[in-house]
Write a structure and sequence with these properties.
The complex is a heterodimer of chains A (about 300) and B (about 600). Chain A is built from 12 helices and 9 strands. Chain A is of the alpha/beta class and about 300 residues long. Chain A has a 7-stranded mixed sheet, with helices on both faces. In chain A, strands 5-6 form a two-stranded antiparallel sheet. In chain A, helix 2 packs across helix 8 and helix 5 packs across helix 6. Chain A starts with 12 loop residues before the first helix and ends with a helix. The mean pLDDT of chain A is about 95. Chain B is about 35% helix and about 20% strand. In chain B, helix 4 crosses helix 6 and helix 8 packs across helix 9. The N terminus of chain B is likely disordered. Classes of the chains: A alpha/beta (about 300), B alpha/beta (about 600). The interface between A and B is large, with 57 and 71 residues. Bound molecules: thiamine diphosphate, iron/sulfur cluster and magnesium ion (MG). The site of iron/sulfur cluster (SF4) has 11 residues of chain A, from loops. Magnesium ion (MG) binds next to helix 5 and strand 5 of chain A.
Chain lengths: ~300, ~600
């Protein structure tokens, strides 16, 4: 090991890069990775304390491309695993990544429960409205009429509305961004990471192979419009009345109900105790009750009660 | 034992000895209480079991509760003895029947010449004079109401009966009263006062005069160390804690739930945490998250829940994550018989995941062993970095036994490994065991590992290389073979060669052991072994098998399409020995000694 008296080295993109991503050239997920690196460079979290976790999908390959402690788990279950890491290791910064199928379909129930428990971690969903890895089946966010291999004449099931699902589920930070807007993405990531609790950023990240062009209408370079939510400044001005109050759940639903492509930014942010805090309070109270004894003594007391 | 002088059942070895002044000495007594679940008959059983544990007596209980909560018939059977008590007993010596249905359903379980005490307020028709059974009608309900006063209604009958039993068997009243005070005192003064009124009234009831005799249950030889009395699920819970478990996650299901409920309240005292997850898929994922983070972690369930955990358990084998999984078996398939016992999850435990996913499977043989098996599970999970499934069952879960208080001197507070890893660090070395670097551990070379379910090379990089897949597959299999080398052969109980070797696993240990001497008394030479390690099995079993004409596995599962129970199927496939057969049953009840004896007789000397 090298000398420990050195100033801790600054964490750079180079330190954080691992295997070259195996994504198709042009895949939206590259930009998500790049934005993530930039935010980590800015925040300077100790290298060994970063933990990236994902399920299965193109987007879920993320942990291989970040040089940090990581887990590539099974399809749909990244959030409960990440919850275990977060709840038992308050020293770590826990990040979960995944796609729309992984997060909103097979893992949809876990998402609701991680959200309602307000587990302290940051979850990034790379939503491409399609199953990428398995090569173009309908996803839970595929719009009606989308022609996929499982809906050759066009999808007929109503897509879920991720923002509504997240707000309803109880996520305490809900942001929406676009992979072609790196600056905005970085801002969302940074705010999500700094938010104490379950923070989610939904990124519209294009699958250039199986659903090309789907997000162009929110991309000014492709002739679309990227409309950013104006948040309240609480400055008592007339304009402020029209601005979005991020703590207002109903207002968040209204934003989520806008005609596609809708608006981007923070839909909802609430200050709510995390499960991490609440459990820790219980642990502290329990420890105090047993007089902070070592394990063997607590067990001995328990056995004594069974005599 | 047999109580009445008129009956001499061949099943009983120890008869009443000397009855000076109407006191009969007993080596052991099996008492069955039959009522409804709200009558608190479990409470009577639990008090008697605790008392036995405190008086150097052996004890084993057997309990059935209906899966529907409100009311419903319920029984509790206590086997108290001064010798070795191995099973809850086939037939009872005493029956306490609270209702007509209790009487009708359980009178057959009473031995010839046994004593039936019934509540004459509820039981109207009894078959007096049959099989030499002594019938004693006592107005249990009205006497209790009288003792406590009308307000308590039906409550307190159980404590009244406890007083009755204390008198009849000349049990240590002071010890019992102090147990009642300790237990019920917590529920408030008036609850305790009523309980004591009921108890004293039962104790004062001249039951001995009515029965015509009293009984003196002999105390056994004082055992070294203190005795503790508890059920299997509690023993598992405490074993997990002693083994270093501080984190876990689960989802409620009978009969597993009481383990998770206890861990939920216990672990915070040790600075840990148990989480109720949204389902079993989430629970196992969260437990893997805890384990990955560097903790000894557990999840658990019963049959249906174990099935849901299978994909993630395969991941834990692939990624080489240590994880302890408790499966409290119940009757299956599907929702099956939720409150009955079965040993039908063995194949699922060993083979239940897709792909070749080796993992360790261990089964405790009795309540005491639940504690030590849980500790061992934690140790081998860490040692071999893989999932370890503990197969316990519904019968062990709830039954109460007394055993020597464990030595806690080796219990330590677990420490998180955050050692820096040097350049030689490989998460999956082909020539050694995995020692994961939990997150938070710095990497000297600055290269961080990704734990993965894709096939991978020694550094954890995904690899589709055919040769690498075979080598890694061998690595995951060979570590279990290495574990097998460390397992000693099970001891033989009974004859070391001869007609039959009985092979058991799990909770059938007691009845199998008890059946050995009974089979021997029928001129059949018989030995018994018990397998605690089911995957891997200990090596060298064939040498034991060679000394017997028949090798018969006694298990509580179906004989399947090809006529062998699940363990028998495994042993037959490993040893290719047609003399390995099995005795199977799926009636949801524990083995009666008689059932084993009769089936073995039929195998050895077919009619
Ligand atoms: C239990 C299970 N079911 C199905 C699959 C196959 N599968 C892998 S990824 C995937 C869908 C991925 O879609 P999404 O999460 O949107 O990720 P994307 O590839 O689009 O980034 C499916 C169905 C699997 N790996 N495991
Ligand atoms: S298939 Fe689509 S989502 Fe997957 S890597 Fe290629 S472009 Fe990206
Ligand atoms: Mg997708």
């Amino acid at each position: 090991m090298s000398s420990t008296t050195d100033e801790p080295k600054k964490l750079t993109k180079k330190d954080l890069s691992a295997d070259h991503p195996t994504w198709c050239p042009g895949c939206g997920d590259f930009a998500v990775l790049a934005a993530f690196f930039k935010v980590l460079e800015k925040l300077q979290i100790p290298h060994e304390k970063i933990c990236t976790i994902a399920g299965i999908g193109c987007s879920s390959r993320f942990p291989y491309f970040v040089n940090s402690h990581g887990v590539h788990f099974i399809h749909g279950r990244a959030l409960p695993l990440a919850s275990g890491v977060s709840l038992s290791r308050p020293d770590l910064h826990v990040f979960a990544f995944g796609g729309d199928g992984d997060g909103y379909s097979i893992g949809g129930n876990h998402l609701d429960h991680a959200a309602r428990k307000n587990i302290n971690l940051t979850y990034v969903v790379m939503d491409n409205f399609v199953y990428g890895l398995t090569k173009k089946q309908t996803s839970p966010t595929s719009p009606e009429g989308f022609k996929s291999k499982t809906d050759p004449t066009g999808a007929i099931d109503r897509p879920i509305n991720p923002m509504k699902k997240l707000v309803y589920g109880g996520a305490s930070f809900v942001g929406r961004t676009h992979a072609a807007q790196v600056k905005h993405m970085m801002e969302m990531f940074e705010r999500a990471i700094k938010h104490p609790g379950f923070s989610v950023v939904e990124v519209q990240s294009e699958c250039v192979v199986f659903y090309p062009g789907i997000f162009d209408n929110a991309n000014p370079r492709k002739g679309g419009e990227f409309e950013i939510i104006e948040e309240k400044k609480w400055d008592d001005t007339e304009e402020d009345k029209a601005r979005h109050d991020v703590t207002d759940e109903n207002a968040a639903y209204e934003l989520a109900s806008l005609q596609y492509p809708g608006k981007f930014g923070v839909f909802y942010e609430a200050d709510r105790p995390t499960k991490n805090q609440l459990e820790q309070q219980w642990i502290d109270a329990s420890r105090e009750k047993v007089g902070d004894k070592p394990s063997a003594e607590i067990l001995a007391d328990r056995f004594a009660s069974m005599k | 034992m047999s109580v009445s002088a008129t009956s001499d059942s061949p099943e009983t070895s120890e008869g009443p000895s000397g009855s000076a002044e109407g006191v009969t000495e007993l080596q052991n007594a099996i008492i069955r209480f039959a009522g409804n679940s709200q009558d608190g008959i479990q409470t009577i059983g639990a008090f008697l079991a605790k008392l036995a544990g405190r008086s150097a007596r052996e004890v084993m209980t057997y309990m059935t509760i209906p899966s529907t909560i409100s009311g419903g018939p319920s029984i509790f059977q206590v086997h108290l003895g001064s010798g070795e008590v191995l099973s809850a007993g086939d037939e009872s010596d005493f029956l306490v029947a609270f209702y007509q249905h209790s009487y009708d359903n359980h009178i057959a379980s009473l031995k010839d010449g046994g004593i039936c005490i019934y509540d004459s307020d509820h039981v109207e028709e009894v078959k007096k004079g049959e099989r030499g059974i002594v019938h004693v009608g006592i107005p249990i309900t009205s006497t209790t109401v009288e003792a406590i006063g009308g307000s308590a209604r039906d409550r307190g009958k159980n404590i009244f009966v406890l007083g009755l039993i204390t008198q009849l068997f000349q049990l240590k009243k002071e010890k019992l009263v102090s147990l009642i005070e300790k237990q019920l005192g917590r529920k408030g003064e008036s609850v305790l006062r009523n309980a004591m009124l009921a108890f004293d009234s039962g104790f004062a009831y001249p039951v001995g005069d009515i029965v015509g005799q009293q009984f003196d249950l002999k105390e056994g030889v004082e055992k070294a160390g203190d005795q503790v009395t508890t059920d299997g699920n509690t023993a598992i819970t405490l074993g997990l804690i002693a083994g270093g478990v501080r984190y876990g996650a689960g989802y409620p299901i009978t009969p597993w739930s009481t383990i998770m409920e206890q861990l939920r309240s216990e672990l915070p005292k040790y600075g840990g945490l148990f989480v109720q997850a949204e389902d079993e898929l989430g629970a196992v994922a969260m437990a893997i998250g805890f384990a990955y983070s560097g903790h000894v972690a557990i999840t658990g369930s019963s049959g249906p829940g174990l099935s849901l955990k299978m994909e993630a358990l395969g991941y834990a084998t692939m990624a080489e994550i240590p994880l302890v999984v408790i499966n409290v078996q119940r009757g299956g398939p599907s929702t099956g018989l939720p409150t009955s016992v079965e040993q039908s999850d063995l194949m699922q435990a060993i083979y239940g995941s897709h792909g070749d996913a080796p993992r360790i499977v261990i089964a405790p043989k009795n309540v005491e062993d639940c504690y030590y098996t849980a500790i061992e599970a934690c140790e081998v999970a860490k040692e071999y970095s893989c999932p370890v499934i503990v197969l316990t069952d519904q019968a062990l879960a709830s039954r109460i036994e007394a055993f020597s208080e464990p030595d806690l001197s080796s219990v330590v507070d677990p420490e998180l490994d955050q050692e820096i890893r040097g350049e030689e660090f490989k998460p999956y070395p082909l020539d050694g065991l995995t020692k994961h670097a939990p997150p938070g551990a710095p990497m000297a070379e600055g290269k961080y590992p990704v734990v993965t379910g894709l096939e991978h090379d020694e550094w954890g990089h995904p690899s589709g290389n055919p040769e690498m897949h075979q080598r890694m597959m061998a690595r995951r299999r060979n570590k279990l073979k290495a574990m097998a080398e460390t397992l000693s052969l099970p001891e033989i109980y009974g004859d070391e060669s001869g007609d039959v070797l009985l092979v058991g696993w799990g909770s059938t240990w007691g009845p199998i052991r008890e059946s050995v001497s009974r089979i021997q008394s029928r001129d059949i030479s018989v030995g018994a072994i018990h397998l605690r390690h089911l995957n891997p099995l200990p090596n060298g079993l064939e040498k034991l098998f060679a000394s017997y004409k028949h090798v018969v596995v006694v298990e509580m599962n179906d004989e399947g399409l090809y006529g062998s129970g699940q363990l028998a199927t495994l042993l037959r496939s490993r040893y290719c020995d047609p003399k390995i057969t099995s005795i199977c049953k799926t009636d949801g009840l524990t083995y009666k000694v008689r059932e084993i004896v009769e089936k073995i007789e039929a195998i050895v000397s077919p009619a």
